[in-house]
């Protein structure tokens, strides 16, 4: 295994995620209990869960689960789906299957750290930054200019983590076309799809637009079920899926059987769950709007287009790193400072922090945050 750098986000969370009193930077929506999820099951799936043999499962994933996943796409079949232990395993193995020394990849920033560091451990990588001065717009001309004859992968993430950006559908379709005409695999991280503030802005899924594109998704983010640890890649290139399966033999081999049944239940009930989660975000956003409006000298706030995280600017003289450190140490309020999203590929803003808007009852955290800010004045 190629040596990778420390995973800054996970290192930070290892210190603070379960010790800070107020987790205001969560990247997932408020989760459900096992009982609440099972209440959404039909009789067949409830019986399957209660009578489940706890043996090994298929490396590609439970066939019934893959059928349900395929039904969430317009052009995919169950044979176009492979399941993983969360999105991180899928991303890691996909990059190791698609890239080798001598290849080249293009990665859009800012992003989830592994989207950058895993390709960098394998080959040359060029970054293309979303423009913070143009509402995090993606410059397709910059993507085009970054491509080389040996480019094998272009990696994107919309709705974006941490910015919440959703680009126009026409731009996304053009990006797919650009990759297809050059024989490049578009790797599309779609884990927040379904949480758009305006559902009409939901992008097409890459795997529906191209038989070379890979769509990454997971139960963790939009569905709010990270404890299941079930992710998947959908791609209509079945030879590539076969290579991914062989790579998975060296990691998890197969998924948790109970989690696969529970994921099946969640995906069958996805309309209900996503409506619940969008409603939760819609309820929370005015609370965050009101909070940031109280401190216009300290924050430049913009609600996300989609997903459940935003990336406001901190305007204070002490800088965002000291600000976030003192906030968690003194008030127990956890945010993620810009250093977590530092890129070695592109310049990235140093005055931002990630805040989560998808957890239930954020009032206590915002009150602690507000009290601490006022005490500093």
From TrEMBL:
GO terms for molecular function: pyridoxal phosphate binding; transaminase activity. InterPro entries: Aminotransferase_I/II_large (IPR004839), PyrdxlP-dep_Trfase (IPR015424), PyrdxlP-dep_Trfase_major (IPR015421), PyrdxlP-dep_Trfase_small (IPR015422). Transmembrane segments: none annotated. Pfam families: Aminotran_1_2 (PF00155). Keywords: Aminotransferase, Transferase. Residues 54-357 form the Aminotransferase class I/classII large domain. SUPFAM superfamilies: PLP-dependent transferases. It comes from the Bacteria. PANTHER family: AMINOTRANSFERASE FUNCTION, HYPOTHETICAL (EUROFUNG). This is Pyridoxal phosphate-dependent aminotransferase. It comes from Kitasatospora camelliae.
């Amino acid at each position: 295994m190629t040596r990778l750098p420390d995973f800054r986000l996970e290192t930070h969370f290892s210190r603070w995620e379960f010790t800070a009193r107020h987790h205001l930077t969560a990247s997932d929506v408020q989760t459900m209990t096992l009982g609440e999820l099972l209440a959404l099951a039909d009789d067949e799936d409830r019986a399957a869960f209660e009578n489940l043999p706890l043996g090994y499962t298929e490396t590609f994933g439970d066939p019934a689960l893959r059928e349900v996943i395929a039904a969430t796409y317009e052009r995919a079949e169950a044979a176009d789906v492979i399941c993983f232990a969360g999105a991180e395993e899928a991303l890691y193995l996909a990059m190791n299957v698609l890239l080798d020394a001598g290849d080249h990849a293009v990665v859009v920033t800012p992003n989830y750290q592994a989207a950058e560091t895993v390709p960098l451990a394998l080959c040359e990588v060029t970054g293309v930054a979303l423009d913070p001065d143009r509402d995090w717009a993606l410059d397709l001309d910059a993507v085009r200019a970054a491509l080389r004859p040996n480019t094998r992968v272009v990696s994107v993430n919309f709705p974006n983590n941490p910015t919440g950006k959703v680009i126009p559908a026409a731009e996304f379709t053009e990006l797919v076309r650009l990759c297809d005409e050059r024989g490049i695999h578009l790797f599309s991280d779609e884990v927040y799809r379904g949480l758009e503030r305006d559902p009409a802005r939901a992008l097409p899924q890459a795997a529906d637009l191209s038989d070379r594109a890979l769509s990454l998704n997971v139960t963790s983010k939009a569905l709010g079920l990270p404890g299941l640890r079930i992710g998947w890649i959908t791609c209509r290139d079945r030879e590539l899926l076969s290579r991914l399966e062989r790579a998975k033999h060296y990691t998890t081999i197969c998924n948790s059987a109970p989690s696969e049944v529970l994921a099946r239940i969640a995906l069958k009930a996805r309309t209900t769950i996503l409506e619940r989660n969008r409603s939760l975000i819609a309820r929370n956003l005015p609370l965050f709007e009101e909070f940031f409006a109280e401190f216009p000298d300290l924050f430049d706030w913009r609600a996300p287009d989609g997903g459940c995280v935003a990336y406001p600017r901190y305007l204070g003289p002490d800088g965002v790193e000291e600000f976030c450190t003192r906030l968690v140490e003194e008030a127990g309020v956890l945010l993620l400072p810009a250093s977590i999203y530092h890129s070695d590929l592109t310049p990235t803003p140093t005055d931002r922090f990630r805040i989560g808007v998808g957890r239930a009852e954020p009032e206590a955290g915002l009150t602690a945050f507000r009290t601490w800010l006022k005490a500093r004045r």
